Predict the structure.
Amino acid sequence: MSYIVKDTILYVENLSVAYDGKVIIKDINITEKDVHRETVTTGQVIAVLGRSGRGKSTLFKALTGLVKPATGQVLIRDIKNSTEMDIKAKQVEEGDVGFVDQKYTLFRHKTIYQALKFALRKSSLSEKEKEDKINKYIQEWGLEKVRNQYPNELSGGQRQRTAIIEQIFSSGSYMILDEPFSGLDVGNVEDVKRSIHKIGADHTLNTVIFSTHDIELAVSLADSIYVIGYPTINGKMEHYGTVVGHFDLKAMQLAWKDFDAGHLQLVEQIKKLMLSS
Ligand SMILES: Nc1ncnc2c1ncn2[C@@H]1O[C@H](COP(=O)(O)OP(=O)(O)OP(=O)(O)O)[C@@H](O)[C@H]1O
Ligand SMILES: [Mg+2]
């Protein structure tokens, strides 16, 4: 399982976000790098864990440029203007990062098929290629029977899967999924896991960041995990979220393999950390 680490792909420095003057998250620092393995293409799969209200969704809004930070910055790779020898970074802006939020809103007046067609409108694919791509995803994500239905005629899981595919179609290398597993049945959970793997395996720069309340699932799927919690400073618990733990599963020899005793141990460690933050 040897790998080499290349240039930075996501750099978050001293980030804080406040709503109406109240600090929600603070002192957030994250560095993620492009990882290369010999024979397989490997993107980055990053999980964010933390108890309810600690600021995961708020962090995601800052990472996608939907919310302006009170301090600090979020830099991503400027993929369009970078070459192998000359890598440029840019401040994240709205639209750079695909985002499926917790509520996964869809167009009310578009069927699944129409919504996916719309998501591909800026793509350079031919009409035939677009058609094939839409059909392939509808098939693979189990939406065949409902492809011509409107959002109010879909189940929560069907809406959610459509929202994820929309973002895969319309965004570049970066994708954030806020609780993509909530409200899914066991089969759908496997589908979404597989697709997160698939996005990662498509390109070494592809970066998927997701949040979940399922620690085991995070440990089995991610190669980097951040725990957001309330820090305890000088014996007193503060009431803003920050990174209270970071686990690099690659360095821990836990990435890219089946769930084993090592994973289970990490689950217990993270559970303890979450309960104390
Ligand atoms: N627009 C807003 N205005 C004011 N406060 C907000 C706003 N959005 C979120 N908050 C507050 O920020 C804190 C963090 O909320 P956030 O949604 O980021 O938590 P979370 O970790 O995603 O929780 P959950 O696991 O329940 O989704 C909460 O106390 C919430 O009330
Ligand atoms: Mg949330």
